[in-house]
Amino acid sequence: NRETLETIPKSKGIDVRKELLKFHEKWYSANIMTLVVLGKESLDDLEAIVVPLFSEVQDTSVTPPSWPEHPFPPELRRKRAYCLPVKDLRSLSIDFPIPDTRKHYKSGVSVINPRRGRQKCIAGLLRVRNLRVVRESGIGKIRKGANEPPPGHYLSHLLGHEGPGSLLSALKERGWCNSLVGGTRIGARGFGFFGVQVDLTEEGVTHIDDIIKLVF
């Protein structure tokens, strides 16, 4: 709005347009971009459309910023917050600060690019075949490889298990919850969260501490 884009910047001697151009010049680089094209046309036709449009994007080999220091340091952890929802909802969310786990991920497919070497491609997870990946340096070829889930998937599988002896079955036996999910989410480059979300019953709302103990 006008206050944030004009009034406040002017009071600080900031030219918003110049700052945007500086940002574009620094960060608009092909090496930190991903292009996905979906169409009914053949791969050859899609290639003919895409390459002329995107092959001129410059690669300045910029290194994207990272924030390895978690925004929730120890003194901000082990806190409890209550939220009053507008809808008729009853849920318990438990969040744990974790490092960025994406570096441990293996997609299961490698892209062989003649100029940039091997690259990772998410297409393997989607079981896409005969796919050619267009990047700023040309066309790559797909080669199958090993598929290994990231670390967070192991935890989410254990906590989200629904069989006998699982956390969910224990909570349901007590009549405290309807469902439970757990998984990782990325906050930004360098840090993330692992969360457990419990959909509570009316009885479960009165047993928050007991549910937390069972989670641990």
CATH architecture of the largest domain: 2-Layer Sandwich
User: Low-confidence spans: pLDDT under 50, at least 5 residues?
Assistant: 107-148
Q: Cα distance, first to last residue? A: 45 Å
- Fourth CATH level, the homologous superfamily of the largest domain: Metalloenzyme, LuxS/M16 peptidase-like
Mean pLDDT: 80
General shape = extended
- CATH class designation of the largest domain: Alpha Beta
Biggest sheet details: 4 strands, antiparallel
Looking at CATH, which topology of the largest domain would you report?
Answer: Cytochrome Bc1 Complex, Chain A, domain 1
Task: Please provide the ordered H/E string of secondary-structure elements.
Answer: HHHEEEEEHHEEH
Give the oligomeric state of the chains in this entry, treating copies of one chain as homo and distinct chains as hetero: single chain
**Beta strand count:** 7
InterPro entries: Metalloenz_LuxS/M16, Peptidase_M16, Peptidase_M16_C
GO molecular function, one term: metalloendopeptidase activity
Keywords: Metal-binding
Protein name: SFRICE_033089
